[in-house]
Amino acid sequence: MSKEILFQIIYDEPLEKDLYKKCNDCDITSNYVSEFVERSKESMQIISDDIAYQLENKLLEKKTSYKSDSKAKQEITSIPKDVSITRVSLRKEPKKISREKEINNMLAEFDFCDMSRNIRGTFENDFVDNYDGTVTDKATGLMWQKGGSSKTLENRGAKKYIKQLNKKQFAGYSDWRMPTVEELASLIKKSKTKGIHLDSIFDNQQVSCWTVDMSEPRHFKNSEAWIVSFKHGEVRKAKWRNRMGTYQFILNEEHYVKAVRSVR
Fold it and tell me: Right CATH number for 100-262 from 3.40.50, 3.30.300, 1.10.8, 3.10.100?
């Protein structure tokens, strides 16, 4: 249960009004707050002590004020506001990125989290579940597959997967594509959910995904592209053999595909 939903439920409960009035008329004390939290937990059968603890801190930090209208109706006016969301535009055209420094600069520019390069990144997404197998991020103007490919694929197979999505008009659209590294990196979260650094609104099967961006290989018989590992929460390179032959027993790496399309 999110804090926002919890606040909404509690504010509709009559049990808090007398307590809040007391808090408004005098200094908020820990006794009032503890009583409020415990009664709320019993009334609503809240099972998350962590959420209750966060609510308790909020109550201690802020006083609650009341507004009176002609009917003497009291309203709580100190409901915490939503976190401010930064809207960004990300590159969607494929690009060859040869230097690690370019990746580092990109992560720093957008404040994306990367557990190896930018662990302090604090970029906030604004996800909306479309309930058709897709998720829209209003912070980036991108629509994502909620899941992705059902199995790992080689790079060539990943491109074929995208073609099939568009042929079938997945979720009613035919302009799906492989994301750029900055688009896919925008999904990395610092904390893990279901074992991966990805918001819980997404499926957790796709632990590492291809991007459309290539890198400069160290040997002409190999190819390299950038991927995002949600298992480790980082951007890294993936390698595979060209058709011309093998080199140093490099294996063809396989990763999942999480398709994206632009909505603005």
Answer: 3.10.100
**DSSP assignments along 185-201, one per residue:** HTT--SS-BTTBSS-TT
Pick from 228, 217, 158: nearest CA to 187: 228
**Which residues fall within 8 angstroms of residue 41, CB to CB, at 6 or more apart?**
52
* CA dihedral for 29, 35, 36, 38, sign (positive or negative): positive
Among residues 6, 15, 17, 36, the alpha carbon closest in space to that of 76 is found at 17
In angstroms, the CA 242 to CA 198 distance is: 32
Would you write out the chain's pLDDT as a tens digit for each of its 264 residues?
Answer: 444 444 444 444 444 444 444 444 444 444 545 555 555 545 444 445 555 555 555 555 544 433 334 333 333 233 334 456 789 999 999 999 989 999 999 999 999 999 999 999 999 999 999 999 999 999 999 999 999 999 999 999 999 999 999 999 999 999 999 999 999 999 999 999 999 999 999 999 999 999 999 987 665 556 789 999 999 999 999 876 665 554 444 568 899 999 999 997
Record the tokens describing residue 224, joined without a space. Answer: 């390299």
Cα–Cα distance, 202 to 13 (Å, whole number): 33
Check if the beta carbon of residue 247 is closer than 8 Å to that of residue 218.
no
Sheet with 127-129, strands from edge to edge, namely 127-129, 134-137, 142-145, 260-262
Domain limits, the chain: 3-76, 100-262
